[in-house]
Give the backbone structure.
Amino acid sequence: MFAKIFIIAIFFAVTVGIGLYCRRHAKNVNDFVLAGRNVGPWMSAFAYGTTYFSAVVFVGYAGQFGWAFGTSVVWIGIGNALIGSLLAWVVLGRRTRVMTKHLDSATMPDFFAKRYNCSVLKVVVSALIFVFLVPYSASVYKGLSQLFSMAFGLDVIYCIIGMAILTGAYVVLGGYMAVAINDMIQGVIMIGGIIGIIAVVLHDQGGLMGAMTEMSKIESPVHPEYQGVYTSFFGPDPWTLLGIVILTSLGTWGLPQMIHKFYTIKDEKAIQTGTIISTVFALIISGGCYFNGSFGRLYFKAAEDGTVAFDNIVPTMVGEIMPDIMIGLILVMVLSASMSTLSSLVMASSSTFTLDFLRGTFFPQMSNKVQIVVIKSLCVVFVILSVVIAINPNNLITTLMSLSWGALAGSFLGPFLYGLFWKRTTKPAVWASMIFAVFFNVTNLFQGWFAPPVAGAIAMIASLIIVPLVSVVTPKLDKATVEHAFSCYKEKIQVTVERKNRLPEEGK
C-alpha cells in the first residue's frame, strides 16, 4: 500500500507542478487555448495519442470487447493506429492547420461559422460539444475509479472526486501548454506500463502459446458449435467488431478534442514527424490494451445468471496477478492516459462554450482577462457535471463513450472533412448531418435498435453520405466566402534559377 501511495503522490506532484510552471505562459486566450500554435511534433503526437486513449480503452473497451471477441479484438487496435492516427494525420493534419490559421479559428465551432458563413452554426456546435463531451468525460472517470477502487479499497465515489480535483487543478493553472507537456510525460509512462502488464499476463499463462491454448478451450455461448472461436481471425461476431473499429477509428476525424491538436502544431515538418510518432504510439497503446483485454476470460467469470460486470474485468486481472509495486505503476499508466484525455475534453468544451457561445452570442465585448476567467470557471463546471454522471452505477463505460463519439463525430465528420477539401459543401448539408447524428444516437439510446458502438459507426458513415448528397441539391455558398477559405492553399513562391552552362542570349 505504501508503494502504491508513494508512486501516485509523485505523479500528482509532477502534474500539478507542470501546471504551476506553465501558468506564466498562459496570460491570454491564444496561449491558454492554443499554446501560441507553437507545439512541436513530439508533444503534438503524444497529445493526440494520449487524448485518444484513456481508461475507457484500458478498462472499459478492452474488458468488454476482449470478453466478446477474444483475440480478434486486436483488430480494433490496428484500426485505431492506421485509420484513427495515420490516415487522420495524413488527410487532415496539414489542411486543418493551414485553413484554421488562415481563418483565424481557435475552435471547431468558429471554423464552421467562418467556413460556412453562418454565425448560428457557431452557437449550436459549441452547445453540442459541451453537452456531448460530458458523458465521454464521465466514462473516463468511471473507468479510472474502478481501477483505483480495486487498488486502494476505497469507494468509487471518492476515487472519482479525487481524479476530478486533480484534472481541474492543472488545466485551470496552465492551460493547453500544461496539457501538452503532461501528455508527453504521460505518454512515455503509458508505453512502459502496457508493455509491462502484457509481459506479466503472458508469463502468468506460460507464454503466448499457453495463453492462446487456454483461450481456445473456451466455448462461445452464442456459437457453441465453433471450436476455438475466441482465438479465431475475426472472432464470433465480425460485423459488430467492424462497427467498433469504425466507431473508435474514424471517430477521431470528427471529434473536436482530437482535431484541436492539428490547430496547435508548429509547422509542416512537425506534421510529417508527428504522423509517424502518433501512429507508432497508437499501435503500441491501443493494440496492447486490446491484446491484454482479450485474455479477460482466463481471469474473470460471469455471474450465475450469466451477467458480466464488464467494467470489473481488467481491474480483476490486474488485482490477481500483479505485485503491489506493479499495481502502482499500472495505476500511474491508466491515470496518465485518463488525465490527458480528461484535460483535452475539459479544454475543448470550456473554450468552445466561452469563445463561441457566450462571447459569440451574449457578450461580444468580453475582454481577454474575463474570457480566461470564464474558461477556467467552465472547466470546473464541466468536471462537476461529469462526476455527477460517472457516479451513477448503471451507466456502462462503453455506453457513455459510444453516445458521445457517435453524436459528435457523426455530426461533424462529414462537414469538417468536406469543408477542408470540397468547395461545393453547403450549409444545409452541415445542418442535415448534425440533426441526423444527434437524433439517431439519442433515440437509439432509449429504443435500443443497435448496440451503442454500432449506432455511432452508422452515424459517422451516414455523415459522409449525407453531406455530399444534400450539398448537390441545395444552393451553393456565395463565391467570395468559398474563395476566401480556399485561398490559403494557393501560395505564390518566387524561384531564382541559377544559370551554370548557358549564356544569357540562349534564351529562357
Remarks:
- The mean pLDDT is 78.
